[in-house]
Design brief:
Blueprint (H helix, E strand, L loop, with lengths): L1 H26 L71 H16 L3 H14 L4 H13 L3 H14 L6 H15 L7 H18 L3 H14 L4 H13 L3 H14 L6 H15 L2
Helix pairs in contact: 2-3, 2-4, 3-4, 4-5, 5-6, 7-8, 7-9, 8-9, 9-10, 10-11
Length: about 280
């Protein structure tokens, strides 16, 4: 009886010791922690975590400075309009051929033309011809703008150029009328002396500069013409336009007045008087 009691007591004690270990083994059979470790170590105070190294670019990656967006790329191949300094002819017109951009320039140029912002329209039509040389619509717009700017010789040439490209184009009738209208003013005037011939070349070169909004170059040409033939009233009107473009308003007004003194009923008398009035409003004299 005593032996049986001792046996039961010992068995109970063993069972009590083994049961907690079995329960612990059921809770975590693999003896692994439930929380997965971080891929990167947790930064300790005073010691920043190490960042992953940046991979080196491969040969397939884009070059340095190139944008990933085509819209934001800058075209570095664009070249400005270059003129021969002796003849002032457009000898080099280089740029990326882009008819879509040229069409947009023409659209904006026509918009400025309707607003009577002729200088802005002039720039747009020139830009259109930079991206698409020989575009008939841009040449016609240039002719109209130059006529509005009182540049009959340049407008006459561009009206004729348009008719050479599109003799039966949508604006060919208007171009033909422009040629007839400007022929008397664009015709070369007979000159007698060498000074007069040289002055005529200076005037023609100055009008080319005016048609490109290159006011200082135009001023130099007209001043040279004025030294050779000071009695020619057209020189002073053109000189006034050049100086006004340079925002030298008081000298511009003096040249417009000089034109009116020499030719009070000339073809540009109304424009000269309006320019004098406008300048007076600006400078207050």
């Amino acid at each position: 009886m005593i032996r049986r009691s001792v046996f039961l007591l010992g068995f109970g004690f063993a069972l009590a010791v083994l049961l907690p270990q079995s329960a612990s083994g059921q809770d975590n059979k693999d003896n692994q922690p439930h929380i997965q470790p971080r891929e990167t170590p947790t930064p300790r105070p005073g010691r920043p975590a190490q960042a992953k190294p940046t991979p080196l670019p491969s040969d397939d990656d884009e070059g340095p400075g190139e944008s990933s967006s085509q819209d934001s790329q800058i075209d570095l191949n664009l070249r400005p309009l270059v003129r021969n300094k002796e003849t002032l002819d457009e000898t080099v017109i280089q740029g990326p051929f882009d008819p879509h951009r040229a069409a947009k320039d023409i659209e904006v140029g026509n918009y400025y033309l309707k607003l009577k912002n002729y200088r802005a329209a002039l720039d747009r039509f020139h830009d259109a011809l930079l991206y698409k040389p020989g575009d008939a619509e841009a040449i016609y717009g240039l002719a109209v703008t130059q006529e509005k700017l009182d540049l009959p010789t340049q407008a006459y040439k561009n009206y004729r150029k348009y008719l050479q490209i599109l003799p039966n184009g949508p604006t060919s009738r208007d171009a033909q009328e422009g040629v007839k209208r400007l022929a008397p003013q664009a015709s070369t005037v007979a000159v007698e002396s060498d000074d007069a011939k040289e002055a005529a070349r200076n005037i023609a070169a100055g009008e080319v500069c005016l048609s490109d909004n290159r006011y200082d170059d135009a001023r130099q040409q007209f001043e040279q013409a004025a030294r050779l033939t000071p009695e020619n009233p057209l020189i002073y009107f053109r000189l006034g336009q050049s100086l006004r473009g340079m925002e030298r308003l008081d000298p511009a007004r003096q040249n417009f007045q000089k034109y009116l003194q020499l030719q009070p009923d000339g073809p540009y008398a109304g424009d000269a008087r309006k320019a004098i009035t406008d300048i007076g409003y600006i400078i207050g004299k």
